[in-house]
Amino acid sequence: MPHDQLSLTHLRLERPRDGVALLTLDNPDQRNAMSDEMTSSWVAAVDELAADRSVRAVVVTGEGSAFCSGGNTSWIASEPDASVDHLRTRMVAFYRAWLSIRRLEVPTIAAVNGAAIGAGLCLALACDIRYAASGAKLGAPFVKLGMHPGMAATYLLPNVVGEAHARELLLTGRVVDADEALRLGLVSRISQPEAFLDDVLTTAEAVAATAPIASKLTKLALRDGGHADVEVCLQWEAMAQPITLATADLQEGIRAAREKRPPAFTGR
Question: What is the mean pLDDT of residues 134-158?
Answer without folding.
Answer: 97
